[in-house]
Amino acid sequence: MELGLNGKSVLITGGSKGIGRATAHAFAREGAGTIHIASRSAQALDAVANDIHVAHGCQVRTHGLDLTDASARASLIEQTLDVDVLVNNAGAIPSGSMYAVDDEAWRRGWDLKVFGYISMCRAFYRRMCERGHGVIVNDIGNSAFNPDFDYVAGSCGNASLNTLTQALGGNSLDSGVRVVAVNPGPVDTGRMETMLRQRATVMLGDEARWEELLARFPGKRAATPEEVADLIVFMASDRAAYISGCEVTIDGGITARRSVV
């Protein structure tokens, strides 16, 4: 399927690993012209950029910075404000109950993901509307629709970002702009293991039994980063030109089951 992404420019935050890295590869495979990837780890970004250049010959520009640093974020925005696609992907809100996640950890997680997405949307949405085209894809998470006592900071944060997506994307197409969200469930990354270890401690009394929880997932597995990346790329493409102000969930049916795992 021709996605109409040839020559497009893209910014992906959290682009050094997991879904962000897979998304950068997916855009390059579909013919994107320039891909900007940002994260705290400059060394990891360089490795991703080299892999993409070798595999696809795509131009990749790296931005090693902390997105919670207002001046560093402003510099990134200034350098990338005219991209065709923004993928907000940076951030990992800590799991645990409201008694396990203290105020400092809660605020730190929200500062990067929730307020980070808001700050990026504020800058890029205005610019995209002024010029009459652009797409923002917010990679959020299915806990927005599965409120969870043991992931309360993430459930609340993800719900707010889905509301942000709806609020912006509901009117954006009048200006030629689309704002959409992708809500993954469990994804086979290092972060998933960390979360399942915490969940195994609560549910099974032993974090070492975390792999037993995989049997509860649809198909007895998590999604792969590549599966999520393919959805993100499609949502950013011309083939999704009339999709805006909504979320697409990719969790194998977990939300439909009304379950957490």
Q: How are the SSEs ordered, and which strands pair?
A:
Layout: E1 9-13, H1 18-29, E2 34-39, H2 42-56, E3 59-64, H3 70-80, E4 85-88, H4 103-112, H5 114-131, E5 134-139, H6 152-172, E6 177-184, H7 190-204, H8 225-236, E7 247-250, H9 254-257
Parallel strand pairs: 1-2, 1-4, 2-3, 4-5, 5-6, 6-7
Which descriptors apply to this entry?
alpha/beta; 261 residues; single chain; seven-stranded parallel β-sheet
Q: What fraction strand?
A: 5-15%
Intertermini distance: 33 Å
Compute the number of strand runs: 7
- Which sequence of strands runs across the widest sheet? 3-2-1-4-5-6-7
The helicity comes to: 40-55%
Silhouette? globular
Mean pLDDT: 95
What structural category arises from helix and sheet content?
A: alpha/beta
**Residue windows where pLDDT falls under 50 for at least 5 positions:** none
Number of helices: 9
The radius of gyration computed from the alpha-carbon positions, rounded to a whole number of angstroms, is: 18 Å
Largest sheet: 7 strands, parallel
Order of helices and strands: EHEHEHEHHEHEHHEH
Structural commentary:
- This protein is α/β, with parallel strands linked by helices and 261 residues long.
- The chain has helices at 18-29, 42-56, 70-80, 103-112, 114-131, 152-172, 190-204, 225-236, 254-257, and strands at 9-13, 34-39, 59-64, 85-88, 134-139, 177-184, 247-250.
- A seven-stranded parallel beta sheet has the order 3-2-1-4-5-6-7, sandwiched between helices.
- Strand 5, helix 6 and strand 6 form a beta-alpha-beta unit.
- The radius of gyration is 18 Å and the shape is globular.
- The mean pLDDT is 95.
